[in-house]
Design goal:
Length: 313
């Protein structure tokens, strides 16, 4: 019988693309419970998955910031049986830390980190009883390394990674797998929301140099990175399906192979300086180095005819 998959944050982006892909699985291996905080936003998913509605796909309300909401959703599932949990809901935050309120920072952690812990607290005990299950978590390459002006977001994904890395050992004893999906940039509403917030951000509580660095250097750099190296939500969903269906699911899985050399720097030098120096040069001397690397990527891509992140397919 099909496996019950609960996915959070399905009103847009990767969650939506994954819900559609799993619900349309040719072999009908999945019964998808696509959840979202606000059911008023379900139309896009309904339109994309129409023929699977009430058959392989059900849409339910779930706010990862509310234990009650999670409990209500899980209790509505027959036998409260969840075979695969995909913790996908999340939010970004960019900009100088001195311009961000602690409330906003807490909201990022409440969504990205405590959202996952609330789901795990609700769903893991039953998986343990059944000695079966898979918890798939949408992390990021920023769960492995930090990035300029992404301080709090990266910290929230580091928290996610530390939590999962610790829990995965216990989970294995119960035959439960945990997998971290680590995309690089993905072109979704996530990116649009970030730029929208950045445009509104009051930069008066930082110095002029930092404000200039954020607006005139980081933002154009980030947009360039998204549009040159960015994957589509469908591409990331396709990689996630591979992780879900793998016989021995990997603990970590990067969806964009172009990022692997950068993430490897972190492990290659235990002092951390190699990683810092490389990113410093990439950002502050990016006109020379970044453009040179982009030309190289374009050249390599032209030769192989490959999309970024296709290495695993
Ligand atoms: P997105 O903004 O399209 O999707 C995020 C979803 O989470 C939205 O539908 C949003 O409504 C939902 N959400 C936010 N708070 C919620 C809450 N309290 N309860 C339930 N749902 C909530 O962006 P996306 O790119 O599809 O992001 C999905 C995941 O991928 C996130 O965890 C994000 O951190 C991660 N990610 C994104 C990128 C990227 O560049 N877009 C890169 C790496 C990782």
């Amino acid at each position: 019988s099909p496996k019950t998959v609960v996915i959070t944050g399905c009103s847009s982006g990767i969650g939506l693309a994954l819900a559609v892909k799993l619900a349309k699985d040719q072999l009908k291996r999945f019964k998808v419970i696509a959840t979202m905080r606000d059911l008023g936003k379900k139309k896009q998913l309904e339109d994309a998955a129409r023929e699977t509605l009430d058959n392989m796909l059900e849409i339910k309300e779930l706010d990862v910031c509310s234990e009650d909401s999670i409990c209500k959703c899980v209790n509505s599932i027959p036998g409260q049986k969840v075979d695969i949990l995909v913790s996908n809901a999340g939010m970004g935050l960019i900009g100088p830390v001195e311009c961000q309120s602690l409330d906003t920072m807490k909201m990022v952690f409440d969504t990205n980190f405590f959202g996952l812990t609330r789901l795990v607290k609700e769903i893991l005990p039953d998986m343990k009883r059944r000695q079966k299950g898979h918890i798939v978590v949408m992390s990021s390459v920023m769960g492995i390394h930090g990035l300029l002006f992404n301080d709090v977001y990266a910290a929230s994904k580091f928290a996610v990674e530390g939590f999962c890395e610790s829990l995965a050992i216990q989970a294995l004893k119960f035959n439960i797998n945990i997998s971290l999906i680590e995309p690089g940039p993905v072109i979704t509403e996530f990116e649009a929301k970030l730029y929208e917030e950045a445009a509104k951000m009051d930069l008066s509580s930082t110095d002029e140099e930092t404000a200039k660095m954020f607006r005139q250097l980081y933002l154009p750099y980030s947009k360039k990175v998204f549009h040159t190296l960015g994957q589509t939500a469908e591409d990331v969903a396709e990689h996630t399906v591979k992780v879900i269906t793998a016989e021995k699911p990997p603990f970590r899985y990067q969806t964009n192979s172009l990022y692997t050399p950068l993430t490897t720097l972190k492990f290659a030098d235990p002092t951390g300086n190699l990683h810092l120096d490389t990113y410093y040069k990439m950002i502050f001397q990016h006109d020379r180095i970044f453009n040179a690397s982009l030309s190289l990527i374009k050249f390599l891509r032209g030769r192989s005819g490959n999309q970024p992140g296709r290495k695993h397919s």
